[in-house]
Each structure stands twice: as C-alpha cells, then as structure tokens.
C-alpha cells in the first residue's frame, strides 16, 4: 500500500506539530526540503505568482492537488464555488477539518461528472502529467472538465538551469532522456518515504506548442524570480 507522506505531514501540522519538514529527492541527484508550514500559508504570505493565479480565477473552480487547502480556502472565503481534489486521504481529512465545503479524495485522471470555468493547478501542478508524451492526454482530460471558454491556470518552471553549462552558454543534457524537464521524485517526512514517481517541469515555449496543438490559447501571464512562470490557457471555442 502506498504511503500517504503528504497526508501524514499535513495532519501532524494541523494537530499542532508545526516544526516538521518534507524532504524531496530527484533523479538529478538534487535534495531539498521545505517546512510543512509552507502548505498552510495565508494569501498574504504566498508568492506573487500564486496570488496572481488566485486573482485570475473565475466562475466554478476545481483546485487540483489541493494539498492542505490553502488556495481553496482563500477562494471559498471570497465567495467562489470551489471544488477541491487530492489523492491524499490525509490531506482531504485535514481540508475538511479546516472548513472546506467541497473536497474529495480523487485522482485528476479519474475525476468526472462536472465541468468548471477554472482549473487551478499550483505548485507546478502540471507535473502530474509526468512525461512530455503525456501532455496531450493531460490537455484532453482538462478539456473534458472545462466549460466552453474555460481556463486552465498553473505555474511551472524551466529547469534547464539545473544542468551543467558549458563555456558557450549551452547546457549539457543527457542524450538518454526524452526531455530535460522529466524527473523522478521521492518524498520523505519523518520515517515515511514515498515510492518513486514521475514528475515534469515544462518550459513555456514547449508548453505553448503542446497547448496550441490541443486547441488551447496559451498566455504567459507573468515570470517569476527564478525561471518560474504563471500561465493561463483558454479553451478555444
């Protein structure tokens, strides 16, 4: 049975254990960590790209991979009709305890039955596509969940900077990987560690190419401070 690492961390924090950290390990041999409190941040403490994403939401919103529910709670407080989904049972339990009205344990790929004006995927939520070759399937599923003229809002990063750079300014990318943004991750909280899973970061030009082929208008809303960006994609009617 898969270990609900995020769920355990989120429930611990919600129960008052506020000093925990989540550790990440990537196939680029990069190790990083962030405090669980980051998942509970208020609107005022969110990065400017996230604030802008929330300000762009309209109509019925589906928050995909809602985590501890911070984005959904903000939207709910502003009067939005927001539905939140996450594959983590613990995260969903915490979101309900925090006061979210419509939160469900569900996988993006399996969710159906409703349509929305806005799909929201923050903290590189498009990473759930896993591989570049699966982006068309991602956009097709997103279209099924969107009303005519609906929008898809998410942030991502161009991680080419993580590769070694040569004297001419180019980057050394291994020839045996299909796309440099495809990574394998593991996450750990305390003694709980996940199985490896595929995750993708998509540079904006590549995103635009795939989105337009699948019938989405693609707009670069804003660039962040470190190779990250916010995008808004609109279903072309």
From TrEMBL:
GO molecular function, one term: methyltransferase activity
Biological process terms in GO annotation: methylation
Domain of life where this protein originates: Bacteria
SUPFAM superfamilies: S-adenosyl-L-methionine-dependent methyltransferases (SSF53335)
Keyword field: Methyltransferase, Transferase
Record-linked InterPro entries: Methyltransf_25 (IPR041698), SAM-dependent_MTases_sf (IPR029063)
Key word Methyltransferase present: yes
The Methyltransferase domain, residue ranges: 61-150
Descriptive protein name: Class I SAM-dependent methyltransferase
Origin species: Muriicola soli
């Amino acid at each position: 049975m898969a270990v609900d690492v995020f769920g355990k961390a989120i429930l611990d924090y919600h129960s008052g254990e506020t000093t925990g950290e989540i550790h990440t390990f990537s196939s680029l041999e990069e190790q990083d960590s962030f405090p669980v409190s980051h998942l509970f941040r208020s609107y005022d403490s969110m990065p400017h790209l996230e604030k802008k994403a929330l300000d762009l939401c309209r109509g019925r919103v589906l928050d995909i991979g809602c985590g501890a529910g911070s984005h959904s709670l903000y939207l709910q407080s502003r009067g939005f009709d927001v539905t939140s989904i996450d594959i983590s049972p613990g995260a969903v339990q915490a979101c309900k305890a925090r006061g979210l009205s419509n939160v469900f344990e569900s996988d993006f790929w399996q969710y159906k039955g409703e349509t929305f004006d806005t799909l929201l995927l923050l903290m590189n939520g498009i990473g759930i596509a896993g591989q570049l070759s699966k982006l068309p399937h991602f956009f097709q599923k997103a279209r099924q969940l969107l009303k005519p003229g609906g929008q898809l809002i998410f942030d991502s990063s161009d991680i080419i900077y993580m590769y070694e750079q040569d004297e001419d300014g180019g980057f050394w990318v291994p020839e045996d990987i299909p796309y440099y943004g495809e990574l394998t991750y593991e996450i750990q909280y305390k003694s709980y560690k996940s199985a490896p899973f595929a995750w993708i970061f998509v540079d904006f030009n590549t995103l635009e190419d795939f989105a337009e082929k699948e019938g989405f208008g693609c707009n670069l809303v804003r660039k962040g401070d470190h190779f990250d960006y916010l995008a808004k994609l609109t279903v072309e009617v």
